Amino acid sequence: MRLARVKGRGVQTALRRAVVIGLVAMMPAGAALAWTPPQGFATAAHAWETGDYATARSLFGRLAEAGDARAAFYLGVMAEQGQGGEADPAAAAAWYGRAADAGDARAAFNLARLLDQGAGPALPGDPARAALLYERAARAGIVAADTGLALMQLDGRAAGGDADAARARLLRAARAGDGAADHALALRALAGDPPDMVEAVARCRRAVARGYAPARALLDQLSAAADPGLLQAATAREPVLDTPGN
pTM, whole model, 2 decimals? Predict the structure, then answer.
């Protein structure tokens, strides 16, 4: 969930950054701990969006220590993606955890995603905690969390749902626009007995249209092997994918 970087605004951006840095330098050491930058979160977010990660880390850090869950979330994003330093999944998990504990659903989802499979020796997987976090994020309206939890249930790594319940989660996420859910449903269609090639192609097409890049390779493979009649049937199926029985 990385926001698009916004190009700098020349002199105005430089002056704003200089004012912020200058104010920090002028603060007494004891007062700096309690200092909140002008415009608070907006100033930190602007620095992040323009790629000034050093300033963003500093300002987000002050806000997070003052209890701002949004700032903790963005510190997690920066640590995970290596913005302003080396990527550090363990630090990212710690910041996401702090934000999630304060009620940030995006942080709960990102932490679940990291803990789902783990991220190397520094951050072992924790499927049980990941499932709980996915559930919390899904209840808060994070559509991709339904997909994540459903896939864990289908893999047998999360309790609380059989295959039908997991499929229902995937269908709900797909109806809400999640391309990853369409891709997962396409794979399930291929694994059926017999495989449903029409649904697989239709869902792969929609997953690609929704920007889910991993579906492209499967769609190319299926399309190359399909006859014209199957491709026409998939075209007819796409508009009714979310209706009962499809």
Answer: 0.77
